Amino acid sequence: MRYRFLFLLLLLISVISCKVPGDVVYFQDSKNLEQITSTNSFTPVFKVDDIVSILVSASDMDAVRPFNLMGGGSSISGNDGNGGGSGSGGGSSEPTYLIDEEGNIDFPVLGKLKIAGLTRIEAKEMIKEKLKVYINDPIISVRLQNFKITVLGEVSSPGAYTIPNERITIIEALGMAGDMTIKGKRGNVMVIRENEGVNTYHRVDLTSKTIFESPVYYLAQNDVLYVEPNKSQIRTSKTNNNTLAIILSLVGVAITTIGLIIR
After folding, report:
1. Angle (nearest 5°) at CA 218 between 163 and 56
2. What is the pLDDT of residues 174-199, one digit of tens each?
3. How far apart are CA 224 and CA 13, in angstroms?
4. How many DSSP H helices and E strands does the chain contain?
5. Which residue in 114, 131, 212, 262 is a FRET match for 191, CA 20 to 30 A apart?
6. Distance of alpha carbon 110 from alpha carbon 181, whole angstroms
7. What is the pTM of this model?
8. Residue 35 in 3-state DSSP?
9. Helix (H, G, I), strand (E, B), or coil: what is residue 192?
């Protein structure tokens, strides 16, 4: 009898303390050597308040100098988040421009250029065509300088992360944030995406390989990735010191009872 009681007690403790593997394992339905190809491609487009660096070069450096002026119009510094004609101040080696509320930048000589809604390649080709009037064979470098995502919730290192390129996946973002904690709900991760003032909410299941087919598998600039806590973590957060003391007392009583039975 006493052994049966002890076995049931140990079983109860195991059930309470252990996490079901199905809740924490990624890509459970993938097979060995299975080839999984993402069916989604994502190319970010420039938006209002984006900071864009544009550098013009050519064989005739004197010809390109007027188009690489550091300052004027909406040009800003590499370290300064404010618009205006304060110049670059030495923060960046390339002229940078803040896209205004109308989607324009104020580019030297060419004036206002609407680049909001364009991809990096589209903006590059548009500027190149306009510069051909002034420069033979211009070479244009265009980069988005403020590609940033935010990772919140049950991850090891929540926060905002600046991305050095224009391509990052949900999996890479979680890796940057130190991965989910054991208390994160892997089957219901939320991506919040803003587009022209409207927020859209996407939920993805990281326990399934279908994540690679999600339209938000590749994150966009200013996306927010939120990992929801599971029920265990919610219950834990609601437990106050008095409840914890009661639980510890019950455990002590159980241990004492077991000791008396075994004797």
Report:
1. 50
2. 999 999 999 999 999 999 998 878 89
3. 37
4. 6, 11
5. 114
6. 51
7. 0.67
8. coil
9. strand
